[in-house]
């Protein structure tokens, strides 16, 4: 579905709030899942990073950004804002905030990229059966997830840890500010590492080892339990949103699948934005997933299984800034002219550490093979190919869980302006890749879930995501990339030394 003009929008309308790690957005969608052209607002920001591996956002500034995008979206909607029947939210997974009894934040908002709890994660692996924890919670013991982060906070910031009366993600802080109460959706809880996936309840053993109990967490809720009745100040600020249902936030990765039409194992979603991910949505009962992957939830009925990379558009951004590359169009032309693996470089693209599939907290970026003949474009192409090799590892694991006849649908801002990267991915995977025409897949996914919860659409399949340009692999380049993958995996084994996780 393409964006529709405001005059052609079919009511009821739904407002999609999309809060990511690099920007907040608010858009309007109609009952057919079409974004209303021009009726949106965006506020960019960036996490504060620290030399010791920290990655933090200021909760109050993030809240202010959300308020600004809601202001802007409603202002642009004008009189049609009265047709809004609900607010649906896509939220970045793995955020953690400690709050006092009044809801005041006592900590920054830690993001998925904060690696300071790696030592705590290693300690947990000595105390727990990680395979059993992974089977129950869908999450490994890694700094991304709450168990390691909570133990790190208890050790490094004991006074703050003791004072904290409530732990939760940014959605819970947002809900507390807007409604005076907080709940944690099953989707957000499932990516914390604290949730028993099968029982949809907090996991007692993991809570105990994390040094907290249920009283310091939020009540669990699903999409059938929206919040209503904004607090007075916000009801006056946004009258069209004052009494409509605000559905609990759903993780941005799950929303991206749904927004691009990947709502079953027949369509596998590849997302490449600031970071990367590959996922399928399934209604199968939670079970053990291959090591290297995770299982989170869309809602009580549906799970999302996949792998997430710490690397993606952030690698290209680093290259552009550090290597003083020309503008995006000129850089794209330079990259496209180079031959597949023609530079001979081997890159480990772990500028933000590693998540799937090796979950190595000590993995860091490396570039091997540099000579005086190499130019910035060579390094950037090598980095883009390196990210594609990490996607190939995910596909090796996830392909067996997809339907036998499946397609790969790609979305994300990093791919939208780079046909060269799309072709690299297709050649590396050896599979055709079809771009989603949805410019805002995660926002649209949240809107579709809200429309389904409102009963406006019967199910998510009623509004497919559509298809854009398809990239087809070239057999010779696929073979050349196969040899380059072996070089990368060999270097990975030498540096990170967890060879059993990799196959080649």
Description of the molecule:
This protein has 2 domains: 6-251, Nucleotidyltransferase, domain 5 (2-Layer Sandwich), CATH 3.30.420; 262-435 and 474-504, 2-Layer Sandwich (Nucleotidyltransferase, domain 5). It has 17 helices and 23 strands. The protein has helices at 59-77, 118-127, 130-137, 146-156, 158-163, 170-179, 186-190, 204-209, 232-237, 252-259, 313-322, 328-337, 376-398, 413-416, 419-429, 441-454, 475-496; strands spanning 13-19, 23-29, 35-44, 48-49, 55-57, 84-91, 97-99, 109-110, 166-168, 184-185, 195-196, 201-202, 220-221, 250-251, 267-272, 276-282, 294-297, 303-309, 346-348, 366-368, 407-411, 433-435, 470-471. The chain has a 7-stranded mixed beta sheet with strand order 17-18-16-15-21-22-23, with helices on both faces. The model is unreliable at 498-504 (pLDDT under 50).
CATH fold assignment of the largest domain: Nucleotidyltransferase, domain 5
What's the CATH H-level superfamily name of the largest domain? ATPase, nucleotide binding domain
Strand order of the largest sheet: 17-18-16-15-21-22-23
Q: Please provide the count of β strands.
A: 23
Give the integer mean of the pLDDT values: 93
Number of domains: 2
Tell me the structural class: alpha+beta
Q: What is the second-level CATH architecture of the largest domain? A: 2-Layer Sandwich
Biggest pleated sheet: 7 strands, mixed
